[in-house]
Design brief:
Elements lengths: L3 E5 L4 H10 L5 E5 L13 H16 L3 E10 L6 E2 L12 H11 L9 E13 L2 E13 L15 E3 L4 E2 L5 H7 L1 H17 L1
Parallel strand pairs: 1-2, 1-3
Antiparallel strand pairs: 3-4, 3-5, 5-6, 6-7, 7-8
Helix pairs in contact: 4-5
Bound molecules: inosine 5'-triphosphate (ITT).
Length: about 200
């Protein structure tokens, strides 16, 4: 019997890698979006955006679809960049541009003012009951300088006290165990294991 297909609806190759690594033991064949661009992320919350992406993927490919929307919420910036995390420094900017802007905005701020949280919503569409969401988060601090070369996005400036490292200083396995995405996907994985059996 052929394997169940699972569309991973993201245009971000780093996320695709993390999501498929965590779901590796699920007995599915991963499908990517290829050249298909996701629609504009115009939701007011990461929940809305995650659902928009997974429902778009399901509409296009007519197969079980998983999508992720992630936001970095910094206390001293009243939760910003949040839903705007990918375009904090503007449209079509690099990960580095976003990290630099955040470090600049927090310049001179003390540790307790550098508290932050990564929040991830995983949405799964194409289920008998439509779409379901799963949430994961991790608390940390924004560092004063970049540290580590692993990971992507804001990882080099996000310090996780429970591990004593920035997420860019962790191995992929270490990051996936404690990350916002890892925590949300483990919940989705448990659900899908039951659903697919
Ligand atoms: P898709 O919509 O195609 O999935 P995206 O990069 O636009 O990809 P998001 O809107 O969810 O995805 O991402 C918000 C940004 O937050 C992302 O571009 C990264 O800069 C950052 N980010 C997301 N996950 C991260 C992680 O695990 N570690 C560090 N930064 C992350």
């Amino acid at each position: 019997m052929s394997k169940q297909k699972l569309l991973v609806a993201t245009n971000n190759k780093d996320k695709f890698k993390e999501i498929t690594a965590i779901l590796d033991s699920l007995n599915v064949e991963f499908v990517s979006l290829g050249d298909i661009e996701l629609p504009e992320e115009d939701g007011k919350t990461i929940e809305e955006n995650a659902i928009k992406k997974s429902e778009f993927g399901f509409e296009i490919k007519k197969m079980l679809t998983i999508a992720d929307d992630t936001g970095l919420e910094v206390d001293a910036l009243n939760g910003a960049p949040g839903v705007y995390s990918s375009r904090f420094a503007g449209e079509n900017v690099s990960y580095e541009d976003n990290r630099k802007k955040l470090l600049n905005e927090l310049a001179g701020k003390k540790l307790e003012e550098r508290k932050a949280k990564f929040r991830c919503i995983i949405a799964v569409s194409g289920l008998e009951k439509g779409t379901k969401t799963f949430e994961g988060s991790v608390d940390g601090y924004i560092t004063e300088d970049e540290r580590g070369n692993s990971g992507f996005g804001y990882d080099a400036i996000f310090f996780v006290p429970e591990i004593g490292k920035t997420m860019a200083e962790m191995s992929p396995e270490e990051k996936n165990k404690i990350s916002h995405r890892g925590r949300a996907i483990v919940k989705a994985k448990k659900y899908l294991e039951n659903y697919l059996n």
